[in-house]
Design a protein that fits this description.
single chain, alpha/beta, Aspartate Aminotransferase, domain 1, Aspartate Aminotransferase, domain 2, 2 domains, seven-stranded mixed sheet, four-stranded antiparallel sheet, 11 helices
């Protein structure tokens, strides 16, 4: 599949013919090639050769792993497939060799997927330190770093690459360098950026990262990616294991637990999701065909257009304004109407946005048009 332009990408989304969809930070529509990928796998299963389908799945899975490696600048051996973001972060939280009295530092207004797994470690004697945000929900890196410095037992700093309520893009390079110098594990929820923005886990000193596929990656939910830095992997406790965690997983009749996989796919514990692998592979191939850099440029351009358009209508933009903190999410508040009224009025005209954290949230993807933004803004 080859897509040479953003215009041809748009033509693959039938949803554009009936709705203006601007909620990719929530759940995204899918493209026609994604549907076709699912149909192809199901048709093969219908044909009565499930073993052959599984063999084809293994090839698709490795191709997808390599594509994520290119998307994240990560070695393929450091990538494993999980069900979703929560699953990936939970695996990390359970596998980190905490000692009683250790602390995890995380912002108070993080999405629960990046808080609850850490709170669950309370039974192991781990404290979760919630750092309060500033005005409009902005998370200050200085506050996170100060919390780490003030507690010598800090073991993990957990952040979202992009904050779900405001669209604030965190300075991963700064946070990661700080953690690397102090031997603090840097764990990042990347679901609100992956597929829209370019990521370099090596440059940004990320130790562990996780994302699901149903937002900016433009695929049906049910599959995600887990990254573990190769140098960190040997320190993790073997957790969340199953028959597929050993080096010869198809040798079911002989127990060989001592031969656990030496790479992140150790955490792919059981039967894989064959259909989800095919659909996510198709959506990632689409994004890569357009070009990850081109996708990011267009997403940020549309977000800037949205920011300017809602300001012209008298709305207050809550998302941080510095260029380096911007993402594909623009959060705003109407000067006179409640968020719920704004959402309903737009929905009545076939325009989908969302309300999160006390704000209206608009999140266009690369296949959207300026006219989509203008149509939404006109109704404000």
């Amino acid at each position: 599949m080859t897509v040479t332009s953003l215009n041809s990408m748009r033509g693959l989304f039938p949803s554009t013919e009936s709705v203006v969809y601007l909620n990719h930070a929530g759940v995204s529509p899918i493209a026609q090639p994604v549907v076709e990928a699912a149909h192809a796998v199901l048709a093969d299963l219908l044909g009565g050769d499930p073993i052959g389908v599984f063999s084809g799945h293994l090839k698709r899975q490795e191709a997808l792993r390599a594509a994520f490696g290119r998307m994240m600048n990560a070695p393929t051996a450091s990538l494993g497939f999980v069900r979703n973001t929560s699953h990936g972060i939970s695996i990390a939280a359970q596998a980190i060799p905490f000692r009683r009295g250790d602390t995890v530092v995380v912002a108070e207004n993080e999405y629960p997927a990046n808080i609850y797994p850490w709170m669950a470690q309370k039974e192991r004697g781990v404290r979760t330190h919630l750092v309060a945000p500033r005005e409009n929900g902005v998370v200050r890196e200085d506050d996170l770093l100060a919390a780490c410095e003030n507690d010598p037992r800090t073991r993990v700093l957990a952040v979202s690459w992009v904050q779900w309520g405001t669209g604030q893009r965190m300075d991963l390079a700064r946070l990661g360098a700080f953690c690397r110098e102090r031997e603090i594990l840097f764990v990042v929820d990347i679901v609100q950026g992956l597929g829209a923005l370019r990521l370099d886990v090596e440059r940004d000193c990320v130790d562990i990262a996780a994302a699901g596929c149903h937002k900016w990656l433009l695929a049906p939910g049910g599959l995600g990616i887990l990254y573990v830095r190769p140098e960190v992997f040997p320190t993790l406790i073997p957790a969340n294991l199953g028959w597929n965690s050993v080096t010869d997983p198809l040798d079911w009749e002989h127990l060989h637990f001592e031969k656990l996989k030496p790479t992140t796919d150790r955490f792919e514990e059981g039967t894989p999701s064959i259909v989800n692998t095919a659909t996510l592979g198709a959506s990632v191939a689409l994004l890569e065909s357009v070009g990850f850099e081109s996708v990011e440029r267009r997403v940020l351009e549309l977000a800037d257009i949205a920011r300017a358009a809602v300001k012209l209508k008298g709305c207050a933009v809550v998302s941080p304004s510095p260029l380096e903190t911007r993402s594909g999410i623009v959060a705003f508040r109407h000067p006179t109407l409640s968020n719920e009224v704004v959402l309903r009025k737009l929905a009545d005209h076939g325009i989908t946005l969302a309300v999160r954290c006390g704000n209206v949230r608009i999140s266009p993807h690369a296949y959207n048009l300026e006219a989509d933004i203008e149509r939404a803004a006109a109704l404000l």
